[in-house]
Write a structure and sequence with these properties.
single chain, TAL/FSA, two-stranded antiparallel ribbon, TIM Barrel, schiff base, alpha/beta, about 45% helix, Aldolase, 17 helices, 2 domains
């Protein structure tokens, strides 16, 4: 019975919930799993056979992929993103993906868009195509679909709000409820202010291009649903500028000392602790994970966006949990397999007085720092480039419909 209990409990891992065992009841025709609370789990019943299993005990792992079917062999998709980059990837695919291509082409015939001309018509078609693809994705995932608001509006609060409301209206016309949608907005000061107004209307927002702690505090104070720090790009920036001190409280780095501090990982951990302690509505979704050890260092954060290579490494790397004699454990086993981040630990985190002040535009701009200013500018421009590369496809599709 003990082995049956282990096998069945491995099917029910969910982050940060009390552990349960499942007892199998076998008959000749079927197997039934019944949930039963237990107070004690011997070491032999622990259920983290791989590093991916371990992570999924504490965080929601979101596969990072252009199209959902690219990752299904390793991990079932839980959420999805639709953006200009995703639309471009579909349209540039030489074969297949017909269902998606038809959904994009159908946007050209949308009567609301046909009543417009010029740039307004083109923007309408792209928004409609974005929603069409998002609606398809919503049928393939149990979680929410993060939907891009035109990044060219990143510094215009009112324009972001207008386009976001239009996207949501399109979704509702297709029968997709607003609780399934996150509206994806760049982490500029203006973008965060737009998100604040949208959240006040009951519209969920997702702040991206987050590279500094002040962006997280501003977004959390605004009541956004999700913030997404990209730790990989932060780490890349510090590698590009090795003279910049990674750890102000650590040893000097200007005399040949090479710091092993990953500033992106440390930044994401502080963001999680801040949000959990002061603004628990706001969830932290960490992306840009280049190495498995970075993902493991952030176990316990709300969401981890993991690419195929790291995901494969995690799924193929065994742990010793659940594979001992049931009488002894490794030294420090309990500590090693505890989450690095948790709501309880966040309550003990310390923050400077100025970090708790309301974030004004001046505080925001001063707090971005060299890395934040550079990376935010590059990030917005990268998204703008994506949508501008997409526009010729829609112009060609419109000509083909004439």
């Amino acid at each position: 019975m003990a082995s049956l209990q282990l096998q069945c409990s491995m099917l029910s891992l969910t982050p940060r919930v009390p552990q349960v065992s499942r007892v199998e009841v076998r008959s000749r025709k079927k197997v039934v799993c019944a949930v039963q609370k237990i107070d004690y789990r011997p070491p032999s019943s622990r259920t983290a056979a791989t590093e991916l299993d371990y992570l999924e005990n504490w965080s929601t792992v979101v596969p990072d992929t252009l199209l959902l079917q690219d990752i299904e062999k390793i991990e079932a998709p839980k959420a999805a993103t639709v953006s200009s980059a995703v639309l471009g990837g579909i349209l540039r695919n030489p074969a297949g993906l017909q269902e998606y291509k038809i959904a994009i082409a159908n946007a050209i015939n949308y009567d609301v868009c046909q009543a417009k001309t010029g740039a307004a018509k083109l923007a309408c078609e792209i928004d409609k195509a974005t929603v069409n693809i998002g609606a398809l994705f919503s049928r393939q995932v149990e979680g929410r679909v993060s939907t891009e608001v035109d990044p060219r509006l990143a510094y215009d609060t009112e324009a972001i709000m207008t386009r976001a409301q239009g996207l949501l209206k399109n979704y509702e016309e297709m029968g997709i409820s607003r609780d399934r949608i996150l509206l994806r907005v760049p982490g500029t000061f203006e973008g965060i202010q737009a998100a604040k107004e949208l959240e006040a209307q009951g519209i969920q927002t997702h702040i991206i291009l987050v590279y500094s702690f002040v962006q997280a505090t501003a977004a959390a104070q605004a009541g956004v649903s999700v913030i997404q720090p990209n730790i990989g790009r932060v780490d890349d920036w510090f590698h590009k500028y090795p003279g910049v001190i990674r750890d102000p409280k650590g040893p000097r780095e200007d005399s040949g000392f090479l710091s092993d501090v990953n500033p992106g990982v440390r930044m994401a951990a502080r963001m999680y602790n801040y949000c959990q302690k002061y603004h628990p509505k706001t969830k932290v979704m960490v992306s840009g994970l280049r190495k498995a050890k970075d993902a493991l260092a952030l176990a316990g954060v709300d969401y981890l966006v993991v690419g195929p290579k790291v995901l494969a490494t995690l799924s193929e790397t065994p742990t010793l949990q659940g594979y001992n004699d049931g009488l002894t454990t490794l030294p420090g086993d309990d500590e090693y397999y505890s989450p690095r981040l948790s709501p309880e630990a966040a309550k003990e985190a310390d923050f400077e007085e100025f970090e708790l002040e309301p974030v004004t535009k001046q505080i925001f701009e001063e707090g971005l720092g060299l890395a934040g200013v550079s990376l935010l500018k590059q990030g917005v421009q990268g998204l703008v480039d994506d949508i501008e590369r997409l526009e010729p496809f829609f112009k060609n599709l419109s000509v083909g419909q004439e």
